[in-house]
Design goal:
257 residues; Rossmann fold; globular; hydrolase
Length: 257
């Protein structure tokens, strides 16, 4: 972790010190077509309008992600929904980005680790991932995320990886240790929303997913902060760009314009 890193309540997987390329990706709304926590909040929590207003407050800096996200999840619990119920709801409704399986297979064949870096909760991600890509691949993909505490009465709450950070999970801490290596790999990061702001400026190549629903908060942040990035609509569009860099056909500056 970096010198000023927030204390982590959860362990990190070992670094892939011998790899030339690493893919780190947000989960919700990036690898999936819909953010699972948004889906729960909109349908069984306090609703889309309040959730969207909260996201815009985070983007504007008037609230932080940790506190805004906690409010979203608390509204689901307050409405009486158990964690197991949420898991089943997501397994039945969350779908995979149409190009991700091919993208993951290509990375695997080319010895490029794919690591999920999420502000969601690992048990929910594993439950959905196993249904979408199969148990074998789901078990192999590393997940760096938050966790959950389930109480005896059935209520539950998120267990933040970095509770002292306004991000709850400061995603830069999954990236910076790679940058500190004597021979750092080229780091690709994929994201879409306010939870990815902490990671945005630290990747070598930042891919920002565009959404038809207009909730393009990471793109708005990158434009405002003048952070170079590549827009993509699904992983089938991103794959040729990653391939061109890995195969040495294009430089990063030629891809990230």
């Amino acid at each position: 972790m970096s010198e000023n890193a927030p204390e982590s309540t959860l362990p990190y997987p070992p670094l892939h010190q011998d790899k030339k390329f690493i893919v780190l990706s947000d989960w919700d709304g990036t690898i999936t077509t819909h953010d699972s926590n948004d889906y729960m909040t909109d349908n069984i929590g306090f609703g889309k309008d309040k959730r969207r207003a909260g996201n815009l407050e985070i983007l504007a800096g008037t609230d932080n992600f940790r506190d805004g996200f906690r409010k979203m999840l608390a509204s689901i619990v307050e409405n009486g929904h158990t964690f197991e119920e949420c898991k089943e709801l997501l397994r039945n409704n969350i779908k995979l980005d149409p190009g991700f399986k091919e993208f993951y297979a290509w990375c695997k064949n080319n010895d490029i680790p794919v690591i999920i870096v999420s502000s969601g909760m690992a048990p929910l991600i594993r439950a959905v991932l196993s249904k979408l890509v199969g148990q074998k691949d789901a078990d192999e993909i590393e997940i760096i995320a938050n966790d959950v505490t389930v109480f005896p009465d059935g209520k539950w709450e998120i267990k933040f990886r970095h509770p002292s950070s306004g991000f709850g999970h400061d995603k830069s801490q999954a990236i910076l240790p790679y940058r500190a290596l004597s021979r750092p790999p080229t780091l690709f990061f994929f994201g879409d929303g306010v939870s990815d702001i902490s990671a945005a400026k630290y990747a070598d190549v930042l891919f920002v997913k565009t959404k038809l629903d207009g909730e393009n908060d990471l793109a708005a942040y990158c434009q405002r902060e003048e952070i170079k990035h590549v827009l993509f609509s699904d992983f089938s569009k991103a794959l040729p760009m990653v391939q061109s860099i890995v195969e040495g056909k294009k430089t990063i500056d030629e891809v990230v314009v």
